[in-house]
């Protein structure tokens, strides 16, 4: 651990609670298990796939997101709990809700098996028939017409056969290390002639470089017919293994532990260390197998045993998922992206120009110097953020640009602008977070490109992720320098800025700018001792300050003064923060929480959390913004942040919570944004005292409200074009 992390964590660790937080303690029944809460979130995603009110392709998208979410859950969270349960030196402590690791694993497995079965029922009984009714048809290989077979034969010989590698498994050919999330065909073969044993197990990886869904010509006019790549490969197994008959075959897919563990490793080159760990990720311990439910039992047993996976024998805990349908439904993204089917998607929209921002071509720095500017994505365009960096790169008066990059797009215009600025002689620094989970390879690539262009690239701390979103521009104006800052809740990624809801702010406020400079000095040179004036940072003091802000409202309530707490975040897990919220609730503070994903707090418990309401919104856009409000309107302290209320954000990441100071922006958040979220009665779900999220429905005579649709509709007449019906759909 770095010296900085060691000194700033002291006094904030969960094992050393402050005196105030320790005064009131709730029992295990007052906490919802983190992993089970996450599964509840993924259920909400699945419910959007089941919702027939959503356009057809958007329902497919939700089904794909459900699978993608579940993959990551197994690779990281289940892998971690599994290590706690079965690792020789792993801790066996109880979770806050009282469950041991093995209990969590068993409960996770039961819930997940139920969810996966429900997912495939949705595909077979709801989405499949709906697709067929609209002309989309998945064909079985044996039902193809001659023209279609001829088309697939050409495809196989010209595109698939040169790539495929048939692999026998015997003493001379050891079992291959199946790639994480790779799709494979396993086959039992019977010797017919030539070389080889009498019976043989063999595998073929389905190539990821080829389309999973292959359109076929012919058939009924007006219908889109397709087959799956694995069915094409399976039909050619006798050819791939000449001299053998195929007795049985199955599809299967292994999920592996993929969390990069770096804290105990030493390296003088973090870039090289990350690259080495990315290679190791493909070889991690197996944590799940998905296999066709009709697989030959002996064939399935061979693969399961070889990967040392639990199959429910003995302890009842199973890591085997027998799938009644195509494996890996993330492949549905290919259908979702097919061109020419706009009528089955959410209506497109054009983000508006943010209020206070001049028209394109006007001096962006003049606009920011005049006033603080709030951006509410995706309703407000992300273009000004790109323009901010691009203008700085081209402006001869700009002397320096400093930028954090956590997740970037594949063709990042911000990274390219930083490279152009460095090549023109400006002082450019980029903090690239190499440990951004599952974006490591992309970030390694950009880091190397920017280094070659002359950008001073740093990687923060080995034991702390740099998760804050900050851009700083230093500009010569008159006889002095002026600093301009962008701070945000989301990543510098123009692609996700169209899919995620986030908030950002441009400011030239001197106090914020001074803090931003100090933050970069900390990230690049471990410079400490700065007296923070406006920014609240982690792991320095965000945890402590959050607890103080909650306690301030509790004190106000005890004194009979108006009080309020509002928090919109992705996840609420931190034990001390939850205890503080319980105490505030007992004091009478009205508390509204909008938690998209995990929420370990239990609302509505008599005598403990009666004044707390928890909502979750799953809709067209991924709710990603973090808003924190402490106090009623006339006394409200309003903050935006890169951080959720989780131990990792408070203690193991560099985060920033920043205040909204301009009165008009405070009013906009309090009057135009938060009330819209709280009024949603069609896509919001309310967490009940039993720990379940229930979808809200309008009462008789009540107007249906849908927050994301309302935000889209607010943009009409404000430089935004939106077609009717745009309020149907969603994103996990």
Count the helices. How many?
21
Helix share, percent: 25-40%
Report the top-level CATH class of the largest domain.
Alpha Beta
Number of strands: 27
Question: Structurally, how many domains make up the residues?
Answer: 4
Largest sheet: 10 strands, mixed
CATH third-level topology of the largest domain: Endonuclease, Chain A
Return Rg in Å.
27 Å
Q: Structural class of the helix and strand makeup?
A: alpha/beta
Strand content: 15-25%
Assigned CATH architecture of the largest domain = 2-Layer Sandwich
- Overall geometry comes to globular
Report, as a whole number of angstroms, the end-to-end distance: 35 Å
Mean pLDDT, to the nearest integer, reads 87
CATH level-4 homologous superfamily of the largest domain: Endonuclease Chain A
Are there runs of 5+ residues with pLDDT below 50, and where? 1-23, 261-268, 717-732
Description:
With 732 residues, the chain is an alpha/beta fold. It has four domains: 35-134 and 310-342, Up-down Bundle (Methane Monooxygenase Hydroxylase, Chain G, domain 1), CATH 1.20.58.310; 138-291, Polyphosphate kinase middle domain (polyphosphate kinase like, 2-Layer Sandwich), CATH 3.30.1840; 364-530, Endonuclease, Chain A (2-Layer Sandwich); 537-714, Endonuclease Chain A (Endonuclease, Chain A). The protein has 21 helices and 27 strands. The strands form four sheets. Strands 14, 18, 19, 20, 21, 23, 24, 25, 26 and 27 form a ten-stranded mixed β-sheet that branches. Helix 9 (270-281) runs antiparallel to helix 15, helix 14 runs parallel beside helix 15 and helix 17 (542-558) packs parallel to helix 18 (575-587). Residues 1-23, 261-268 and 717-732 have low confidence and may be disordered.
